[in-house]
Amino acid sequence: LKPLLNPIFNRNQFHQRFSQFSLNSLAQTRFFCTNLATDLSNASIVPEEKSPLVFSPQQIRNVAIIAHVDHGKTTLVDRILKQCEVKLSNERMMDSNAIEKERGITILSKVTAVTYENSNERMLLNVVDTPGHADFGGEVERVLSMVDGAVLLVDALEGPMTQTKFVLSKALQYKLRPIVVVNKVDREAAEAGIAESAVFDLLLSMDASDEQLDFPTLYASAREGWVSSSFSDRECWKEKNLDVTALLDTITNHVPAPKVDLDAPFSFLVTMISRDPFLGKIVTGRVHAGQARVGDAVKVMTRDGEYVGEGRVSKVRASRGLKTAELPVAIGGDIVSMTGIECASVGDTISALEVTAPLFAPKIDPPTVSVFFSVNDSPLKGKEGVVFTSQKLSERLLREAESNVSITVGSASGISEQMEVQGRGELQLGILIENLRREGIELAISPPRVLFQTDPSNPRGPKLEPIEDLIVEVDEMHAGSIIEKLSRRHGHLIDMTNTLGDRVRVRMTIPSRCLIGFRPIFIQDTRGSGIMYSTFSSYEAYRGDTGDLRKGVIVSMAAGTASAYALESVQERGTLFIKPGTDVYAGMIVGESAKEHDLSMNPVKEKKASNIRTTLKEESIKLVPPRLITLEEAIGYVQPGELIEVTPKSIRMRKLILDCNLRRSAEKSNKAYN
Fold first, then answer.
1. Which spans in 448-600 are helix H?
2. What is the mean pLDDT of residues 192-198?
3. Which of 60, 460, 492, 585 could lock 379 by a disulfide, CB 3.0 to 4.6 Å apart?
4. How far apart are CA 284 and CA 407, in angstroms?
5. 321-328, Cβ contacts within 8 angstroms, sequence gap of 24 or more
6. How many CB atoms lie within 10 A of CB 485?
């Protein structure tokens, strides 16, 4: 009985009541239970008095911070944590994933909670940090169902960008009232009124309500750690000793408290799923009604109301600062995590046994790109990692799809050894492959392909393809060549404006398939100074073929170790991807040809030694540094008939058919071997 009684009686009270009775007979036991039941029915649970970690719904504010990539979301969350006396060991504490720290971007949505004193009332602010890249838009879509307000962060110079429009449209669908924070106003070129006017025009074009158009505007420098309601405070924020109090007060006053009925049966919507080796599956979401304690029996329903199974709450946990605390009760309006419900998935409703209707779960936008995962079968397999069987690989990918709802995993049609993974873009799929690679798994990845659709009202009509809304910002000297290359890829120019200095901002619509592999070309043409962002816009009619956008490749026709002597002759025919001493095999791509067709060469040939004396001086071998291909570049580089071999230590590209003669026969017969 102790776990069930602890939320109401503390340990000392329970032992005092228990010691008053000597349960030596059945009658005495019944008398004790009758008195205990009477006390339980008369006891009123006041969470604030029983546990300082539990708050009433009137004290809770749930808010998400949404913005375009690199507009300062995670930095602002760091300042909020620091303001609320949370100790930070370093910057960007919310980016806890290893890849997030390396790349400096947010990949996964994360929830943290801070306590804040407002008008002598202790408040709990559940803050959700969301990704800014379009490929991880699914993370933004699913967490917006947990919150009652949104802080829209906008760069003072760039203004609303492509992802700003996407996240704002999702927030408007949930009828959230935004709080606009114009960040980076400490930059000299920032001007008052421009960014907020652009946000207002964007909201107006998206049919926002009058209530949503009446948004409060704040000005901030997340890097310096201050927020103010006046733009002019950027000159005197140190004298005024400003911090982020203005933002916390605005969240408390502007974001409504959760509207929940604590007397209603318990209802909880699963938004995130993680796993712990000791606790098992951990489901995270918002309590929409009622309350649940440890030991309560619950059931699971899908978004369509289908019964999944039952479970029992074994732990209730919640984020408090950067730590996780155990709570005695999950109360309505709070964002908590629970364990003990193994059959739940993202979008399911966990509720009391008497509940019959599921909660509304938002549907995630469909994926636009797919790749095929298969077991590595190259001649070098197993030398750098673990070669999974197709069954184990399938199990690992299904576990990933369980927590990441924006990807879809299924078996490849007609090929049992392959698994098809559908996602939002190259970056999202690249992060998934990188995670598998760091787990020591060896894989073979097919070239990405775009998912086409047909008009539901006209199934026999033309096929539709995903179109991206693209924004590039380049130096004026590079604008012409970039626009020309994008136009060859069926890009349609929408707008072109001059920005600060000699910079030009170009907005275009372009098919998603035409952007695959373009980023390395863009970086090379702009000498690394260009900025490119894109986000999914809509499905439109197919814009036609693009032809060959890539030159041919140099393929090894022998196995062994690459020699400098052989690579010297190979580099005369194109660009090298490998350096001397690299292990190669027949069918492996070792470089890019200078011509349009593929070229087979021997990169392992050694210079023959002879016993003939010579007085001629040996000529030194001079090799150009090779072009080392990263995982993201390889995903966009390979074409049908080629594969990417991914190991923990290497990224290799190869032909699907390794034998040169068999490959030529397949090409001549136009046999599809993708």
1. 476-488, 512-515, 518-525, 564-570
2. 88
3. 585
4. 19
5. 321/81, 321/84, 321/86, 321/112, 321/113, 321/114, 322/81, 322/86, 322/87, 322/88, 322/93, 322/112, 325/53, 327/51, 327/53, 327/54, 328/6, 328/7, 328/50, 328/51, 328/54, 328/293, 328/294
6. 15
